[in-house]
């Protein structure tokens, strides 16, 4: 037996699929994700949100009146009042509007479908006998989901920037702290915020992937993931449960507004990133443990 | 020693057992041995454990106990190095409907660590050509007919030169012309030295292409061996065509022919055990003034052997 084992190991080493092959699988995953009509439709909806916000603000302020009337500075990252002065604020407003619902829903759909969708279509068994390798396949799935998180966030940001630039003037940015920074630095902050927003979805992506390994139905996995998201967000608003709030993955999501302070207030942003990393580690491991030992009967 | 073992059996299982969580025993201590270079027919009624066995061989399901080896290496442990040499069609094809046939193959090929990306396009084109799908390669797979999907599934099993092909019901959904093509493809592959492991519910199909066969029933292996030996296990039947059926039946009975049945101008019966020369029976009939129109022994089909072994109709779920 030991002789057979060493033979196998040597062959493994000689064949050495290596990084190049993993990249090939990842590329295949990305192509697959972004060629689905569903993905493109999700991205189209995300791109439409900033346009709608922009148009709504434009119409409402066309008679010269201020937006809403309230919207005290620092009282929540709505940023709506600032949009008419500076189109760049549409980026922040759009990200603040999509982060609680649209973005995580899109991620829940893509992550939930990742493994369960393949199982449902039966393609999973052919990938595994190819043999893709369960760990590598899961890794490629997670990596492509993370790429989707980034792309989805960028779609919102870029669409918002384009709409903002078209409908409103661009210029110096007034930070939440009241100081002013140049447009160039403002744009840099926008990029940083988009990156943090995308990173905020890392935890949910891992949860979705884990749920996806539990079922053979892509729809069930998507619904469960999105249902979990809504439940956790409700829990996050119940004051009696404040003890557990810091451990809920959406708790620090809107902390990205702190990046618009001068100087930048990092504490909650870092708390958010740490929390996302913990969720990714826990649910990523759970997904791995489940997927690598599971009987594939679909 | 090791080398010999490897070349002798392409698939080897020892006490392979799978009990599902519900407690159902799907495969019960299976000792299967598929010789290299054979076309191996894997038979059994629905629910007899064929597919579970195939899934265990391909590393999709973990056995409850027992071991399985493919090409001399244990699975699922060595699956990574063995499976690139194995092409498989398991429980029908599965495709990405929104991708073209060609892109489906590219997708599966990029999942194979042993596949060279530089030759990918050429190999995909060759595989499409081999199953006659070159013209339809650019069409979306959801527009394919069942037969075309089946062909595309076969093409994905043929993306690389394989040492072993595991084909689960490969002619499912194909028209008679397509079935014939698949059979000749299987023969062609076997002639190139590829071992073909073929599960089918079409017994005559197995009989036409297979050199070896195994029969499963209720999760257990009933028998395995060369097809000629299996069919020989069930003895042939004597068939006499004559207008004088009553007389013929009497004479045959006197000579020890059992289980006689008379239908119209046809008398059939089981040849008596021992060395009975059918020509002597014919002579006896003629001596008794039976006008014999035709006389012969019908070779036992695999189906007869199958029914004799499992004691049940073929499509009975076990």
UniProtKB/TrEMBL annotation, chain A:
Keyword match Transmembrane helix: yes
Pfam families with a match to the protein in the record: ABC2_membrane_2 (PF12679)
Membrane-spanning residues: 37-57, 88-111, 146-170, 190-211, 218-235
Keyword terms: Membrane, Transmembrane, Transmembrane helix
Listed name of the protein: ABC transporter permease
Automatic annotation (TrEMBL), chain B:
GO MF entry, a single one: ATP binding
SMART domains per record: AAA (SM00382)
Organism superkingdom: Bacteria
Pfam families: ABC_tran (PF00005)
Record-linked SUPFAM superfamilies: P-loop containing nucleoside triphosphate hydrolases (SSF52540)
Alphabetized InterPro entries for the sequence: AAA+_ATPase, ABC_transporter-like_ATP-bd, ABC_transporter-like_CS, P-loop_NTPase
Domain ABC transporter: 11-243
Family recorded in the similarity comment: Belongs to the ABC transporter superfamily.
Name assigned to this protein: ABC transporter ATP-binding protein
Organism name: Streptomyces chryseus
